[in-house]
Design goal:
heterodimer, A: alpha+beta, 20-stranded antiparallel sheet, B: mainly alpha, 3 domains, two-stranded antiparallel sheet, 24 helices
Chain lengths: 586, 473
């Protein structure tokens, strides 16, 4: 452990110290020294941007305030690590943040191949510092090897004009000018040196798939990743995942074309950009997003003006999703999409047959919905007259856009009341209390809500979990709201009134938009902290103290997440996903 | 009822003077007299391990060493009345369980109970709670209410080492029991015979002691009791106030009176002593009346469970070959023996599921007669299942992670090297009960095998706990 830590420190420092290397200009891009067989490549082309974020005083303060960091800082191993850092700072005559910048500032590339080979290429800004650090580490390694009576462990050999070193085991590395090559096997290092010796040889840089992937990423990325999907798709868990989703209607509906595109793709490119406190990740594959006849066509906006709508904003929101899914088209194609009728599908059809008795499900039910579907999850605002459950489930709601709201709203109302009746009948058989239906008015909109009668003598701080639910159904303009609580239904009525005062503009080329509000998520998790700790104890076998540490770490990290936004769609016919993480640093 | 042929199995081990010869009936006076170690029956690791397998869920190395130092009587004292703050422990776990029960999660309750069994400072109490859960076998599959199941098991725990009379009284008014016996409504117009039949024939007398008329009368006595919205309620107008004849007595009996009359029957004591004998001493052969007679007689006086358990655990018979390895571990005993031995804590959510797959789903006994147990725990499928579970617990990877580390435990107790560490694991799990050539081969293998010691000892531990001896309690 101690030795690994020292190597890690050394490596970090290798990249920390150096006057600008003239050799850097003469070396070709790192991807020319990587085999075209690599299946996974990460390139950090602008390390400065990431280091700026990492060394931002706000980020340092945020990390230092994490309980897990503070606990770690009290460990003897951490103090030892700091001593090593200080030693290297003195020896290399530079503060460690500067040292890190000098050592990795030219770029970092990591490549892995299907046979387990891994190669790390680091371009330092200061070649002299790189050499000095290597000498320090070499001395240290030799000293250790001699102490352990294994002097032959540290060795070097010449290969194609380069000195290849190993400090022990399978590790192999070499320094060429300002470039460090570190491999987990000597043959991997030698393969890189072979490519260096043959500038016209087949390398990753000359691979058409890699070139296409790079070209598909727009803009000047801080970092990028290339994944060769062909071998990955043969990996049993991935293979199962891609197959399973096609037999699961809900997964097919939600993932809409993503799995089809992955099945059809040979590569995946991911780009990372950093702008102030926001990290942006974009992913693109070369598979087709699907056409008019594609099984995933139900999620493809057919006109430019169509797409997922912006998410609805409600108080105490935790998460929201906006989807473009043509349910009519999806359900009409169900026999093609799911040739094997699963028990889940049969149950769904049976229940829908009861609720919408005498109606054709495809044309007269799903045909009445438009493709814009939105889902909202929000923290509940508990009525003090009812009380607060010990486990506080968030409220959730689905909002459907209707073709003919005036005609269809009553049909849904009837179906909804049948469902409540069925629930009550079933609960009645189990001698359990049933739901009472009410018709309140919110902001001038009359809607339906069902609730459990509150027991008179209940402990209001720990009421039964069923009081998490007050299912509600409302129609507001062109939209139909199914909500798990009355409060959220009211908030959505307000949000839809506000939205319909203008004209919501669909998001172009986007069929799915998921947003997560850090503050809302933190709040609901904090409200359930005790339950999460207990759950962790049971599921992980942790002690209460260990469980508290893990849960508190999650809560502490979430404190610094302002917002996460994932959008999925297509650009120029290619499926694309973008993830934005906005941090809220102190 | 039983042939008077209870004998001491001859396992080739010498017994002290006064011990009946192999093949001859056991003298009850000798059998129930307290065991006193001597040169021929020394207090050793084997007997200490035996005590912890029966009166607890196995032991860790520290407990075994402490027991060796304390001797059998003091060890039994500790098992019956531990020094630790048991009340505080139960308060904490009651709170954990109440919160889970409030979410109506029976799987969560199952996970908490397993965790409680692993961590309790009073394992005998949990062992006896499990005994009563098997005896009053109420399943959440019928109750469908985690809160009621939580209160039911809590009640079993509070009476587990108390007196049987209040326990039976409590059970007869437990809403979980009524729901579990499909007796949510007991109307005088249609008396429900299920609770009466179960309380009489399963919980107290055993079959064949009551006539059909007795059972009908008992059912009438239970009328008026309802479980409405999870609450037990007595509706007086639904109680049959007519005269009933029950076990030779006549009167306007209610449920309490039925329980009182039952407790006056000698068959109750016989049933419970025999059942506890199978639980704590031996399940391979039926016990004979003459051997159990002193216990039956004494238990009938006050139905004091703790005294009965204490007598059995301290007895010569308990520490004799007639009891040693004469039970098959249930899946819970099997798994907890591994976990407690290695002083670890694993995911009890996962363990609960795995144990259910092996046939022991806590809070869900299969029938009103509980688990059949004994040889029925073992078949080809469950043996493979036990082996897989042991492998999963000891693999160091998912789903149980690296929570159990035989090498770390061996090192902690002063055995860092392969061969002594292997010997330590054999002693920890089997207390030397392994054929010499098998043990030697295992130790040779662990010493000769290359690679990481932690992995080697995980493999060895996995092999040890799948040996036939480890399946025997």
């Amino acid at each position: 452990m101690h030795r690994k830590m020292v190597w890690a420190c050394g490596l970090v420092l290798l990249m920390v110290i150096c006057p600008r290397a003239s050799a850097a200009d003469s070396l070709p891009p790192a991807n020319r020294w990587i085999s075209p067989e690599a299946i996974f490549v990460v390139e950090v082309s602008q390390p400065e941007a990431l280091l700026d974020l990492a060394f931002d005083p706000k980020m340092i303060e945020a990390v230092a305030s994490l309980p897990a960091y503070q606990k770690q800082a009290e460990q003897p191993g951490f103090r030892q690590f700091l001593q090593v850092v200080r030693f290297l700072e003195m020896t290399l005559d530079t503060p460690w943040p500067t040292g890190v910048r000098k050592l990795v500032g030219g770029g970092v590339t990591l490549a892995a191949s299907a046979d387990g080979g891994a190669l790390l290429i680091v371009d330092a800004q200061d070649a002299q510092m790189l050499q000095r650090l290597h000498e320090i580490l070499l001395g240290f390694a030799k000293n250790q090897a001699e102490k352990q009576e294994q002097p032959g462990r540290v060795a070097s050999e010449e290969y194609r004009g380069a000195t290849c070193w190993t400090f022990g085991g399978d590790e192999a590395h070499a320094i060429l000018g300002n470039r460090l090559l570190l491999a987990n096997r000597s043959e991997v290092l030698k393969a890189a040196l072979d490519l260096r010796a043959k500038p016209d040889g087949q390398s990753l840089a000359s691979s058409p798939a890699y070139q296409n992937a790079r070209a598909a990423l727009s803009g000047d990325m801080v970092a990028s990743a290339f994944v060769n999907l062909q071998p990955l798709k043969q990996h049993p868990p991935v293979k199962d995942l891609l197959t399973q989703s096609s037999s699961n209607p809900l997964a097919t509906l939600l993932l809409a074309g993503v799995t089809e595109a992955l099945r059809d793709s040979s590569w995946l490119a991911v780009g990372l950009d950093v702008e102030e406190d926001t990290l942006s990740l974009s992913a693109v594959v070369d598979g087709k997003a699907g056409g008019e006849n594609s099984p995933a066509a139900f999620a493809l906006p057919s006109r430019d003006a169509e797409g997922a709508l912006p998410n609805l904003a409600v108080p105490r929101r935790i998460a929201a999703a906006s989807l473009y899914r043509d349910l009519h088209r999806f359900y009409a194609a169900k026999d093609d999409l799911f040739p094997e009728r699963t028990s889940g599908l049969i149950f769904f059809e049976n229940m829908m047959g009861i609720f919408f008795s005498g109606m054709d499900l495809t044309e007269e039910v799903f045909g009445e919905t438009r493709p814009e579907i939105r889902v909202v999850v929000a923290e509940q605002d508990y009525d003090s007259a009812v009380g607060t459950p010990q486990v506080q489930f968030p409220a959730f709601a689905a909002v459907f856009h209707l073709e003919r709201p005036a005609e269809f709203a009553e049909v849904v109302e009837e179906a909804w009341q049948k469902a409540v009746g069925l629930i009550n009948f079933t609960r009645g058989q189990q001698a359990q209390p049933g739901l009472i239906i009410d018709r309140p008015v919110h902001s001038g909109t009359k809607f339906t809500v069902a609730y459990f009668r509150s027991p008179k003598d209940a402990d209001r701080t720990n009421v039964d979990a069923r009081f998490n639910f007050r299912p509600a159904l409302a129609t507001e303009g062109e939209y139909l709201i199914f909500s798990s609580t009355e409060g959220l239904a009211g908030d959505l009525i307000d949000a839809l009134k506000k939205e319909q005062a203008g004209t919501p503009k669909p998001l172009a080329e986007t069929h799915s938009l998921v947003e997560l509000d850090g503050a809302g998520l933190l709040s609901i998790l904090a409200a359930n902290r005790e339950n999460l700790i207990r759950q962790n104890m049971l599921e992980e076998g942790n002690t209460q103290a260990e469980a508290e540490t893990q849960i508190d770490l999650i809560l502490a990290v979430l404190k610094y997440l302002d917002e996460a936004k994932l959008s999925v769609g297509s650009r120029e016919g290619r499926p694309q996903a973008n993830l934005k993480l906005k941090l809220d640093l102190p | 009822m039983f042939a008077d042929n209870r004998t001491v199995p001859d396992q080739g081990r010498s017994e002290p003077p006064g011990t009946p010869d192999a093949g001859r009936p056991i003298d009850p006076d000798w059998a129930w007299a307290p065991y006193k170690p001597d040169t021929q029956r020394p207090w050793d690791l084997r007997r200490a391990g035996h005590l912890f397998r029966r009166a607890a869920f196995g032991a860790d190395w520290g407990q075994l060493q402490q027991a060796l130092a304390d001797g059998p009587q003091r060890t039994v004292d500790r098992l019956l009345r531990p020094d630790a703050d048991v009340e505080a422990f139960h308060r904490t776990y009651d709170e954990y369980e109440a919160s889970t029960a409030g979410s109506d999660s029976a799987d969560g309750l199952r996970a908490w109970w397993l965790r409680r069994m692993m961590q309790t400072p009073h394992p005998l109490l949990e062992k006896m709670t499990l005994f009563w859960h098997d005896h009053f076998a109420i399943s959440n599959a019928r109750v469908k209410n985690a809160l009621l199941m939580h209160k039911h098991v809590q009640s079993l725990r509070s009476h587990a080492l108390g007196r049987f009379a209040p326990l039976l009284q409590s059970v007869s008014r437990d809403p979980a029991v009524l729901l579990g016996l499909e007796a949510a409504a007991n109307r005088k117009a249609q008396p429900n015979e299920q609770p009466a039949r179960t309380i009489v024939e399963v919980y107290s007398l055993g079959p064949g002691h009551a006539t059909e008329e007795d059972l009908r009368s008992a059912a009438r006595a239970f009328t008026g009791w309802f479980v409405l919205r999870g609450q037990l309620r007595y509706i007086e107008r639904e109680h049959d106030t007519g005269t009933k004849r029950f076990l030779g007595e006549e009167g306007d009996f209610d449920a309490d009176a039925v329980v009182r009359i039952l407790l006056g029957q000698p068959a109750v004591s016989r049933l419970l002593v025999r059942k506890l004998y199978r639980w704590l001493i031996c399940e391979t052969e039926e016990s004979d009346d003459a051997l159990l007679a002193p216990l039956v007689e004494s238990f009938r006086k006050d139905y004091d469970v703790a005294t009965l358990v204490e007598t059995m655990l301290r007895s010569n018979l308990f520490f004799s070959p007639a009891a040693y390895r004469q039970r098959i571990k249930s899946p819970v005993e099997f798994a907890l023996g591994i976990v407690r031995g290695l002083e670890g804590m694993v995911s009890t959510t996962q363990l609960g599921q795995d144990l259910a797959a092996l046939g022991e789903n806590l809070y869900h006994p299969p029938t009103v007669r509980g688990w059949r147990g004994g040889q029925y725990w073992i078949n080809r499928a469950t043996l493979i299942g036990r082996s897989n579970l042991a492998g999963a617990l000891l693999s160091g990877s998912e789903p149980y992670g690296d929570k159990l580390d035989p090498a770390a435990i061996a090192k902690k107790h002063g055995f860092p090297d392969p061969e002594p560490a292997g010997r330590f694991l054999l002693d920890l799990f089997l207390q030397g009960d392994v054929e010499a050539d098998v043990g030697d081969r295992l130790l040779r293998d662990v010493a000769a095998a290359g690679g990481d010691l932690s992995r080697r000892l995980r493999r060895l531990a996995g092999t040890i706990v799948t040996l036939p001896e480890f399946h025997l309690a």
